[in-house]
Amino acid sequence: MKLIGVDVGGTFTDVILGNTESQSVAIHKVPTTPDDPGRGVLQGMIEICERSKIDRAEIDHVLHGTTIATNAVLEFDGAATGMITTAGYRDILHIGRHQRPQHYSIMQDIPWQDRPLVQRRHRKVVDERLGPPDGAVLIPLDEDAVRQAARELKEAGVEAISVCFLFSYINSAHEDRAAEIVREEYPECFVTTSSAISPQFREFERFTTAAMNAFIGPKVRDYVTNLERAISDSGFRADLHVMGSNGGVATGAMVSERPVLTLLSGPAAGVLGGAACGARCGRNRLITFDVGGTSADIGLIIDGQFAEATARDTWIGGYPVLAPMIDIHTIGAGGGSIAYLDSGEAFRVGPQSAGAAPGPAAYSRGGTLPTVTDANVVLGRLQPGNFLGGEMVLDRGSAHKVMGDLAERLGMTPEAAADGVLTIINANMANAIRSRTVQKGHDPREFSLVAFGGAGPLHAVDVARDLGIPEVIIPPYPGITSAAGLLTTDLKYDAVRTEFQVSGDVDRNRLTRDFEAMQEILAAQFGADGLSTDQVNYQRSGDLRYVGQGYELRVPVADGPVDEANLAAIFKAFQDIHNTEYGHVFEDNPIEIVNIRVTGVGKMPKIELPTSNADNDVADAQIDELSAHFHVGGKLKALSVPLFVRDRLPVDQVINGPTIIVQKDTTIVIPPGANARSEAVGNLIIKTGFRS
Amino acid sequence: MNAQSRSAPAVDQVTASVIQGALENIAVEMGYKLMRMSYSSIIRESEDFGAGLVDVHGRGLAESAQSTPLQSGPIPGYIRGMQKILAERGQELKPGDAIMHNDAYAGASHGPDVGFIVPVFYEDELIAFSATTAHHLDIGALTPGSCGIVDAIDAYAEGLQFKAIHVYSEGEKVEPVWHILRDNIRVSDLVVGDMEAQIAAARIGADRLVELVDRYGKETFQAACDTVMDHAERLMRQAIAALPDGVYKATTHIDGYLDHGDPAYRELPLCVSITVKGSEMVVDLTGTAPQIPDKPINMPLHGTVDIAIWLTVRSVLLDTAVHGHIPVNDGLVRPIKIVAPEGCLANPTFPAPTIARFCPGNQLADTVMKALSEVAPGQVSAGIGNLRVIAFSGLQGSDHWVHMEIFEGSYGGRDGKDGMDAVDTLYANTRNNPIEDIETHLPLRVDRYELRENVCGAGQWRGGLGSVREFVYLNDGAASVEGEGHKFAPWGFRGGNDGAYAGLRLDRRDSTGGELPSKVPHTTVKAGDRFICIGPAGGGYGDPRKRDPHRVLSDVLDDFITAETAERDYGVVITTEMTVDEPATAAQRGQALSQLH
User: Fold this and answer.
1) Is the pTM of this model over 0.90?
2) CA A52, CA A7: separation in Å to the nearest integer?
3) What is the C-alpha radius of gyration for chain B, rounded to an integer number of angstroms?
4) Which of A358, A498, B163, B336 has its C-alpha lying 20 to 30 A from B411's C-alpha?
5) With an 8 Å Cβ cutoff, is B187 touching chain A?
């Protein structure tokens, strides 16, 4: 079996080829082609096959991480979109939750008002109305009005239409019928219903998700179709799978229909890559820490499972999205983050970033502001001659100059100022990790930090120490962890239904029926993708809350009919999770089952990364001795430290800090008191000096 | 303290910056936990709660980013009020204590916003306070719910008064107090559950603060707090100093009780006079109407009036969209002095009732913005549309159900931008409840929720649109209403038109209903009766005849306004093909064709 993973980033498209027969891996990078990312994808695939001397026709699967949907939202570059909704509710999409994004601002923008996914002129209303609790028809659907609306929207040049009715999450009949009529009137239109995309209560969020699906639909559909054709025209016979925000892949057909499922495609692959890396050395409680030039992405793996974001915490470009997503916390902290004194003389770092252009001063591309990268250069942690495998030479003089200017305003030495920059950015990153762990009842000291991205391994040990984390893991290829993560994914589809059933009065037969019905829908999808029943696993869960609460917690549910014991276990699990997350239970209060979910996982083939048994002398791996600044006994001191090359490190020999290890795609800093050991499976394990 | 003459800081700027971030992180965690643990929709969906950290001197250190400003802002005042009462009683705080406080004459925002305060001890020394506030569904007033209590005659009629009451004493629950709460509050399961969630969240804040102090040492921690507050003070002083010295005045009016026979209860002026001198500002409310001794629209000076003023000055002068994230702490308010004559609406004397001060306070915020509009015209909006709250209630058996819904206003037009449509304004920033949630859990139907068409403050930058929401009762029940803006429209600015009034109608099935004033005391409602709630439209900014005709056309295409309105208010003539008739428009506007764009 031969697999290709392709992850499109802002600057580079990363490609990885895994061969299960030879158990070998090849990696490659090509420049991203922003005007048509598919071109870079194809070029990368062709080149990696050529370099590996593998016939294109032998590739079995292509797994693809893409930002096409995300960028369409962030750049507000989607289709002319229409909506057909219930009469009386034309402006749900515009009013939202009537809350402003900022408390203290007169001049702020409101994304859903200033950049509406559907302009009001294209929001058509029709008579129909369903009501709770069972979706009873209060007002029948006016089919003629739907037909009329579809014609008007077609006439107006709309390319995509979302059908959004109240309470469709209980009863989708009206939405389904309306969509059918729209397709009759306007067959070439991209049509979405809110119940098909996300059958959950909260109309603003559900309608917005459906509208966003329509808004990005034609673009993503065209991208996927064109890419599939181009791949096949180039002699590949592999099928294309696209990474979803939920941590699984979906077929091209599925993604074309529900592009909103891919909004976190790239970052999700990163979390999976981090998880796979931890699993290779037997660690299953992990914090993934992916730091690039402008941002840091943080994910959490508990018992080998990644956390999923709660529905109220999932936003893209300022719009709420009700779609299953890995819980990834992104903050504006990276190598390009700019350090400055604000007008009140407070020392700040980020979130503004110099990005790749003009970039840090040390890049010599015109950057004139001090950045985190410049601070690392000034402290000797980034080595001018050993950056990106020598492909880019850093300008130490420029880094010193900009840091010197900042230091002068602070009344510090340039080294102290640079140290301050790192202290502040590391504290920001540690706070972001705290918000994902401590705030949710998890003790970070019980986790390992998996650091990747170009800048992750530079900061990882300091950040880990800030949190008391005992161990940092650096994957073999930190710069392409997302692409590597693609090779570890499975096909994954989710189904959800809102139940609103309360403990003491639960219709267990209905739960059993609904679980089974959802599983059948997923089974049909997997069947259509060509998977046999034994290749698919199903996991059930529920979103529960105490009656009256507004936030649900995800609780696992056992397979099979929902009997008394099963139900009791569900409620017990809810209490336990509530206690973990909030430190508090309300013993006597009734519990509401808000949503139930089934997740289907269809196994994809996997490869094992090659192992190493290099047992050369550590001295062979050392290429230089240099001066770098570290804290010793609370004071910043210049120390003479050895510089090692990652791929020459022998297996299982401990290297004590302070030292710096370079490799083509990153630089790893081991401060005094920490030590590093290279493992046969390719990971570098750093002990930070804290015991768990 | 004068920022210019400060001595050298006792902590380096790096550590100060790190501690500042840690304080904010703690406050965020408190808010996160409270919001998720709480029961009533007013807290968990509307987000009408606050969380914050305060030093031993009652100075705010950090507030939770998720909470509403009118809840987090007053927290330092709650602490100072509690400290004063405890000192008068000669009571000392001990580790393990938790204090309940809602005294509107001692720092609380108003009675239903109950504060729970946990003193933070480090090595047996009191070093700070961790506190949460939240709007409770019911506080045992004369009628169900805690809003729309518009006929409470004094502070005693508003519900239970908690003046620095121990609910936990040295770790022990003070059971009698909890019995009183359960016995005197409607829907006490929800309310007491929310109160427990508040205490749990405040304790988390206290624990985290101790961990933080443990890490850096007490002296460094306190020095960092001083540095962080001084920093915020400098930002505010710079922003004030950028304004020309002078006196800037504005007056707006509140409805008061429009159906009251006595004119002293109606059409009441709110007066603001801002004196800018160097880096300091005095906000003088002299001229504001006298307090109403027996109606609860008086505004607590500490907890409502101060927050309205601080919030507005900050939002205009240090706008987040312009200046980025700015830490919220005591430093921001130091350069602003407030003067309010005793016995006026903005500084009432006990026991004048205050429970329905929400809308007057937001009108005061609008008046402050109007005063600033003269000196910072590019940083304000034209007049805002104020809000309304309705308490829907009823009985199921002998149990009450109570649901409070906050109805949005809208912003006035801005320099280069139209006003924000159908949002909470100024010191309020809550969330509405999903229709699908309301109808699933309550005997109510929301029959309509849309923008209000063809009514808006015309301007070069038009005012934000109001909303229309209709609620129908499925069972017999009751309602009470507190609102504003039925008599006075949001002000237009720089040649923009005034916005539009709010309105409220109750269509009763027995045909006895009709238009209602902005305040309605508890009234019974029958199944099938319908509230039609019309939101106000914000004022216009700039001459409507300078509005880009294509923006006017766009508004017509979106049915925001009709073609007739386009011609009347904007002088823009729209053809039957839905295009701008440029020659006719130029003629209407008395402009040359080339001046149109």
Assistant:
1) yes
2) 18
3) 25
4) B336
5) no
